[in-house]
Amino acid sequence: MHLPFQITKNITLLGSELFNLYLVKGETYAIVEGGVSGITYPFLEQLSQLNVPPEAISHLIILHSHFDHMMVFPVLKERYPWMKIVTSDLNRATFSSEKIIAKIFDSDRKITLALQERGMISEAPNLQPPTFFQLEITVHEGSVLDLGKGMKMKFFEIPGHSADCLAAFLEEEELLFCSDGAGFYTPPDFFRPNYWYRLDEAETDVHPCFFITI
C-alpha cells in the first residue's frame, strides 16, 4: 500500500507500514496515533504531499501511552505549540512522572536506532526526555471531541491492552480507531491477543461499535 492512503473522504492513513498515523479532517484536522519519533520526517513530508499545513492541525490524539503510539507528537508540540494533546484522564499521573517519561523516551530511542541501522529511515529527531509530557485535554468514557463539519469523535475506555487504552468512534464515518485494543493484526487475516493489562476487564467492557474497526 502506498502512503498516504485515502481510507474515507475525511480519513487518510499516513506514517509507515509498521507505524500508522491517521489524519482526520473536520473543520480542523486531528492526528490519531503518534508512532515512534523515527517516522517524524516521513510523516511531515506526507503532510506536505497532501497540502495540509501544520496551522490546520488542532489536536494530537494518544489512544494509549506506549512509546510506539505517541513519539511523533513531542516534535510537533515543540514546533507547533497550538496543537493540543488529547489522551486519557489516567495519563495526568503517567505524563507527570519523570521516571516514566524517561523510560518512554529511552524505548523510543532504541527502536528508532534500530530503524536507522536497518536502513528503514535515514534520519530522526534527537529527542531529549522532558521532566513531564504536556497534555491539554483529557477524556474518559463518553467524552466527545468535536472537530467541526459533523466530525465528532466519541471515546470509550478499553483497558485490556493498557490501563489507559482508548477507542475513538467517528459516527459520521462509521469507523472506530481501536489502537491495540483489538489485538495485534498480522495480514492477511490473523489477530493475536495483545492484553498486557487485564484480560478480564477487556472481556467484560465490550461496546457494540467495536465491531467496526480499521
Secondary structure layout plus pairing:
Blueprint: E1 5-8, E2 11-15, E3 20-25, E4 29-32, H1 40-49, E5 57-61, H2 73-79, E6 84-88, H3 91-94, H4 98-117, E7 137-139, E8 144-146, E9 152-157, E10 166-170, E11 175-177, E12 184-186, E13 190-192, H5 199-204
Parallel strand pairs: 4-5, 5-6, 6-7
Antiparallel strand pairs: 1-2, 2-3, 3-4, 8-9, 9-10, 10-11, 12-13
Provide a quick synopsis of the model.
By secondary structure, this protein is α+β, with helices and mostly antiparallel strands. It is built from 5 helices and 13 strands. It has a single domain (5-211), classed as 4-Layer Sandwich (Metallo-beta-lactamase, Chain A).
Account of the 3D structure:
Mean pLDDT is 88; it is low at 202-214. The chain is globular and about 40 Å long. The longest helix is centred in the middle third of the chain and has 20 residues, at 98-117. It has a single domain (5-211), classed as Ribonuclease Z/Hydroxyacylglutathione hydrolase-like (Metallo-beta-lactamase, Chain A, 4-Layer Sandwich). By secondary structure, the protein is α+β, with helices and mostly antiparallel strands. Helix content is 22%, strand content 26%. The chain has helices at residues 40-49, 73-79, 91-94, 98-117, 199-204; strands spanning 5-8, 11-15, 20-25, 29-32, 57-61, 84-88, 137-139, 144-146, 152-157, 166-170, 175-177, 184-186, 190-192. It has 5 helices and 13 strands. The strands form 3 sheets. A 7-stranded mixed beta sheet has the order 1-2-3-4-5-6-7, with helices on one face.
